[in-house]
Amino acid sequence: MRFLTFESKGTQRPGLLAEDGRIVDLTAALTTAREQGALSFEGPIPGGLLGLIQAGDAFLHAAEALSGLAKDGELEDASLDPDACRLLAPIPRPAKNVFCVGRNYAAHVSEGYKARKMKQVLPEHPQFFTKPPTAVTGPDAAIRLDPDVTQKLDYEVELAVVIGRRGRDIPAAEADSYIFGYTIANDVTARDLQRRHDQWFKGKGLDGSCPMGPHIVTRDELPNVGELAIGLTVNGEVRQDGNTRDLIFPIPVIIETLSLGMTLEPGDIISTGTPSGVGYAMDPPQFLKAGDEVTCRIEGIGALTSWIADKEAA
Ligand code: MG
After folding, report:
1. How much is the pLDDT for 35?
2. What domains lie within the chain, and their CATH numbers?
């Protein structure tokens, strides 16, 4: 299944992408189906996708039932034309910072050392940092580029994992069962701020620097998550062209390491690192400019486009 958050007529609502491409308004569909006795979803129906993910298996079972009803054409009243909706990030305002893994593709680690003329050392353990919830933005959104803030705005396409089950000290062998699904993230980075402050948080935390979407694809639909093409274009020019099989630390290891002594909760997001081809490592370096169109693509999930806007436009 594919879940999303959309805005229509000024309100934000969680949605399910039906097989015919229409968007099922989950709040409306769950309410109607329950009234008709077609669902056993207990308690108040959450108004957002985060709340639905937090409802756990009860929500997944209900969504499966709705998927079946949509296929049979029985949810017409709760379905919308996608052209009449604007997609937002699937979880527009995460409850916590977005967890990120730095330097997790060997070729990207190499290009970073080469650009900084340093001796290469591969990380022995995953490197974690976070992006604040205010950085999150959706598909086709503008990313503000203020030259007084940064002169070196860069992109990083990443596979992002959405946690579906609460857990601590999760063994790698069981990590899969804690995953709700996957989406695309762009770990937009102000390289000058990243270097100036030594610690990465400032350079990776600007408003709009975490585009995500367009959908969350549930775990069962991506059994080959360790072997997906992942890439990025700027104005149609291919800049990143990798594969998730090249992750230094695969997803189960990331979850095991991050959850060691620290609870992960439903709706938490972990972005797993970027392949090679970032702008700062190009010769000469190429940073993003106002007007640029940046598109991230991951096989089996889709495409996520952002626009770079000057500070007046965004
Ligand atoms: Mg990154």
Report:
1. 87
2. 2-88 (no CATH), 98-310 (3.90.850.10)
